[in-house]
Amino acid sequence: MQFHMIAGGPKPVAPFSHATEAGGFVFVTGQMPDSPEAPGVLPDGIVAQTRAAMANLRTVLAGLNLDFKDVVMARVYLTRFKEDYAAMNETYRGYFQEGRLPARTCVGVTGLAYDALIEIDLVARRPG
């Protein structure tokens, strides 16, 4: 098993690795919608926060020589589920090739770090 911290990656808000790897699968820790340059500072609205969380996920994946095409499962956590679900879906869909959407779970939660609107974690698989 490998434990990964990505140089230049998002600043962890708790004690965890950016990703762990076992048996060809890579488990990417849930990413918040802040940036490595401004930890804890969030953009306004679900569209901007979805983009920011996906940018952090892309950074972690890239640090492991992976991309969204390697993602097999995603989990999305929303604090304003009814209000933000449709806009999040529209934004999220743009990160994956048509016909290659990963399996996904999306749940409403009562709170997230930094009072974020969204957090997303991923499971990827190494090609080969």
Walk me through what this model shows.
The chain has about 130 residues and is α+β, with helices and mostly antiparallel strands. It has one domain (about 1-5, about 20-125): 60s Ribosomal Protein L30, Chain: A. The protein is built from two helices and six strands. The chain has helices spanning about 45-65, 80-95, and strands at about 1-5, 20, 25-30, 70-80, 105-110, 120-125. The chain has a six-stranded mixed beta sheet with strand order 1-2-3-6-4-5. The mean pLDDT is about 95.
Oligomeric grouping of the chains: single chain
Structural domains: how many = 1
How many strands in all? 6
Shape: globular
Computed CA radius of gyration, to the nearest angstrom = 14 Å
Helix-strand pattern, N to C?
EEEHEHEE
- The CATH superfamily label reads RutC-like
CATH class: Alpha Beta
Sum up the structure in keywords.
128 residues; alpha+beta; 6-stranded mixed beta sheet; 2 helices; 24% helix
